[in-house]
Amino acid sequence: MILNKNFYFLLVAQLSSNLGNWAYYVALSLYIYDLFGNNTSLGFLAITYTLPVVLLAPIAGVLADKFDRKKIMIVSDILRAIILFILPFTENLILIYLLVTLEHSFAVIFNPANKALLPLIITEKTELIKANSIYTTVRTIAKMSGGFFGAFLIVRLGVKSAFFLDALTFLFSATMVLLINVRVEKNQGDNVFGKLKIWNNFMDGIKVLKNETLVRKQIINFSLAMLNGAMISSFLVVFIQENLGLEEAYYGTFISIMTAGIVLGSFLTPYINKSVQIKKMNYSFLLTFFIYSTILVLLVQLPYLTVSFVFIFLFGISEVILTITNQTVIQIGIDNQYQGRVFSVSEAGWNCSLLIGSVIGGLLNDWLSLTFTFTTLGAILALYSIYQLFTFLKTSKNVNNNVQKTNIDS
User: Fold this and answer.
1) How far is CA 359 from CA 26, 110, 299, 348, 353, in A?
2) Which are the contacts of 339, defined by CB distance < 8 A and separation ≥ 6?
3) What is the pLDDT of residue 248?
4) 271 contacts: CB under 8 Å, gap ≥ 6
5) How many CB atoms neighbour CB 400 within 10 A?
6) According to the model, what pLDDT value does residue 40 have?
7) What kind and span of H or E run contains 307?
8) Which of 217, 221, 235, 378 has its CA 20 to 30 A from that of 285?
9) 293 versus 16: which is more confidently predicted?
10) What percent of the chain has pLDDT over 90?
């Protein structure tokens, strides 16, 4: 992997585009707020991010499996760059929403192709989890740096400069992807247009997923685990103000500590999953799921600043282990010709969890309290993960006993 130049082309492409993306996300909220000056206009941004994921998942997955993944990524990057060059000159709110939705639609198309391309570059299964870990570390660093860089650009050059930066990073990303040299299947792209054909191809991927029980359960469990992530991403500011009694300025400190946890977790994951076997990875995933959920409970039950820093750090470690393990299980457990469709299902699942978690969490916080919401959801998911863990161990034991009995009989 160290000498794999294709991997590093892909890595640099993601570093640049993610750096620009997070500068853009900071600028977009400020741009809309400066133009329209109300929180409602910002609230609807969540819909522009989530709706394309839910609606385009079947199409994005089929395209990733039936067409040249490199070309999909390059075209998506170029079209996103064009949209971002147009966006700063738009002052109509509806048109801004449409452009942001369109930009994120191309991101939805890009992502399954991107994730399914990696196993074609890193062909050794034992190296995949290391590649995913490096990939996640780079994305996390870009996320953190992009936010700071975006804020710096906005102060120095104005909000619109971040849009132009992101457009340029997409063009650079497209250039890097163009340099990647991978084999393309000759049968890709045959007769997949048309609503019925797209749907049939998508359902072929679902049938494959149904037959891969461990992978299917993994995706479901990951989506449920991300309900915890929705609580932290949506209500961390509320926790800091209401539970800790601190100013919202501490939010940046908490995010930095969680980011440090994510970086450390990225390095730890290959060691936790030394044996790249789906069963063993499922086991480590469920253990981490339990820890991840328990942290949510302990965070509000022990509302002390130093303790909260420790829990947020552990939360970052746990989240990235879950993410990398889930991605690697799909790459190992599903035939590459179906991976685009399976990744699109996984992405739609956890995005729905983030949306549902944010909405339900917001309602419960208003009706009851943040402490009740975090404690109840965390406890339910912790109990669920324990149940899944015992079920997994029982099933594995029964399978081993049947194998031993068969060997004795023979």
Assistant:
1) 22, 27, 20, 16, 10
2) 64, 65, 112, 115, 116, 119, 330, 331
3) 66
4) none
5) 10
6) 61
7) helix 305-333
8) 235
9) 293
10) 27
Residue whose structure tokens are 């461990």: 214
Q: Which of 146-160, 284-298, 321-335 shows the lowest per-residue confidence on average (mean pLDDT)?
A: 146-160
User: Roughly how many angstroms between the first and final C-alpha of the chain, as a whole number?
Assistant: 43
pLDDT tens for each residue of 276-307: 788 888 999 999 999 999 999 999 999 999 99
Q: Distance (Å, rounded) from C-alpha 337 to C-alpha 152?
A: 43
Distance between CA atoms of residues 298 and 307, nearest Å = 9
Question: Do 133 and 1 touch, CB atoms closer than 8 A?
Answer: no
Backbone angles phi, psi at 275, to 5 degrees: -90, 110
Q: What confidence tens digit (pLDDT) does each residue in 110-146 have?
A: 988 998 898 888 878 778 888 889 888 888 878 777 7
Contacts of 246 (CB under 8 A, 6+ apart): 240, 305
Question: Distance between CA 62 and CA 344 in Å, rounded?
Answer: 9
| Confidence (pLDDT) at 139 | 82
Q: What is the mean pLDDT of residues 256-272?
A: 89
For residue 319, CA distances in Å to 252, 283, 342 come to 18, 15, 20
Task: Judge whether 105 and 54 are in contact, CB under 8 Å.
Answer: no
To the nearest 10°, the Cα dihedral for 183, 185, 189, 192? -140
Closest CA to 280 of 340, 218, 236, 227: 218
φ, ψ of residue 29 in degrees (nearest 5): -60, -45
Contact (CB, 8 A) for 269 and 386: no
DSSP 8-state secondary structure symbol assigned to residue 410 = -
Residue 271: Cβ-neighbour burial (10 angstroms; 0-12, 13-18, 19+): exposed
In sequence order, what DSSP letters do the residues of 2-48 get, joined into one string?
Answer: TT-HHHHHHHHHHHHHHHHHHHHHHHHHHHHHHHH--HHHHHTHHHH
pLDDT at 410 over 50: no
